[in-house]
């Protein structure tokens, strides 16, 4: 029997989740304070519409809930659902919360209530990241020296209050990726440009005790969209296009090994093409987690750890000082 899942929030991400859930025959209800918007989505998929999470959960027996509301509301809604209702699983759009303190309190409550949860750091579910992480672990570029993360696009100023600052909105993706590549004692330095008093563009440099460096270029003031990573190591480099789902492997002195998805290049390199829809992978992991108890790829502790780095970046940007931190490695 298909799971019964409801969505709270029918904005940009809520609509994507609704489409994917409907394709998996698991969507039964949506809720939004803007009832007309919720009703429009519900009518398109033949499900129920409500004007609040309480009214939805009071009237519909759900196995799981997806929280896709504005960032500042994630923690309060997750706590409400966990405290008052009997659901088997919760998916929280990134970030888990706006602050480390709130993230920690949500994680502690859900663990106490034994409610399974996923935080939708969707880039971890991007097949190109999965493949790139595998290549790095296999030593495809040797010992990693530097990683450059570039994530830029444009967000209208009126949307900034609902999304929060640049670190919690888009930085969490790359901070989580970094923790799956590098961990341990590090120093962090951040410089920002603000819009309406909100950090909206940033350069962040994190240097680990072993000398490895991660550089983050984050911006919501860019015409176009860029999501890429460049990994440099002692043997070669990986150039990763997160949108195109393409990895270019360059070796310093010999051609890399190939597989059925690899196109050999003349300059001692290869291009690897991967395929997949990250949100679809998130939903599949969510459903599997509820049905089988399988550990999710991005759990509560991953969400909490990312917020630790977010707050370190905020502190550096606010004070202009280097901040010490300890990056907890993620699986």
- The helix count comes to 10
| H/E element sequence | EHEHEHEHEHEHEHHEEEEEEEEHHE
Name the CATH homologous superfamily of the largest domain: Dihydrodipicolinate Reductase, domain 2
User: How widely separated are the two ends?
Assistant: 32 Å
List the uncertain runs.
Answer: 260-267
Helix content: 25-40%
Overall tally of structural domains: 2
Secondary structure tally: strands: 16
CATH T-level fold name of the largest domain: Dihydrodipicolinate Reductase, domain 2
Average pLDDT number: 92
**Biggest β-sheet strands, sense, barrel:** 10 strands, mixed
**Anisotropy-based shape:** globular
Report the radius of gyration as a whole number of Å: 20 Å
> So, CATH architecture of the largest domain?
2-Layer Sandwich
Residue share in β-strands: 25-35%
> Structural class from helices and strands?
alpha/beta
**Which strand order do you get reading across the main beta sheet?**
14-15-13-12-11-7-10-9-8-16
- CATH top level of the largest domain is Alpha Beta
């Amino acid at each position: 029997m298909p799971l019964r899942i409801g969505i709270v929030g029918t904005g940009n991400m809520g609509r994507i989740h609704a489409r994917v859930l409907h394709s998996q025959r698991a969507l039964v209800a949506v809720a939004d304070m803007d009832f007309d918007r919720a009703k429009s989505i519900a009518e398109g998929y033949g499900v129920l519409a409500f004007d609040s999470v309480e009214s939805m959960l009071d009237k519909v027996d759900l196995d799981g809930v997806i929280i896709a509301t504005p960032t500042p509301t994630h923690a309060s809604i997750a706590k409400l659902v966990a405290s008052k209702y009997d659901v088997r699983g919760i998916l929280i759009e990134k970030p888990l919360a706006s602050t480390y303190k709130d993230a920690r309190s949500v994680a502690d409550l859900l663990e106490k209530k034994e409610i399974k949860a996923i935080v939708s750091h969707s880039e971890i579910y991007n097949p190109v990241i999965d493949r790139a992480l595998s290549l790095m672990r296999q030593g495809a570029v040797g010992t990693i020296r530097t990683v450059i993360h570039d994530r830029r696009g444009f967000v209208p100023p009126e949307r900034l209050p609902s999304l929060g600052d640049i670190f919690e909105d888009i930085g969490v993706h790359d901070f989580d990726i970094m923790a799956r590549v590098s961990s341990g004692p590090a120093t962090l330095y951040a410089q920002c440009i603000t819009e309406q008093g909100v950090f909206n563009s940033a350069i962040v440099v994190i240097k680990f005790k072993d000398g490895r460096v991660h550089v983050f270029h984050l911006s919501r003031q860019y015409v176009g969209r860029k999501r890429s990573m460049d990994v440099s190591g002692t043997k070669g480099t990986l150039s990763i296009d997160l949108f195109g789902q393409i990895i270019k492997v360059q070796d310093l002195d010999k051609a890399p090994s190939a597989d059925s998805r690899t196109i050999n290049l003349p300059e001692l390199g290869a291009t690897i093409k991967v395929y997949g829809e990250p949100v679809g992978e998130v939903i599949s992991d969510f459903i599997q987690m509820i049905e089988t108890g399988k550990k999710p790829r991005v759990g509560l502790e991953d969400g909490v750890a990312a917020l630790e780095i977010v707050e370190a970046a905020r502190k550096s940007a606010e004070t202009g000082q280097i901040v010490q931190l300890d990056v907890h490695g993620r699986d």
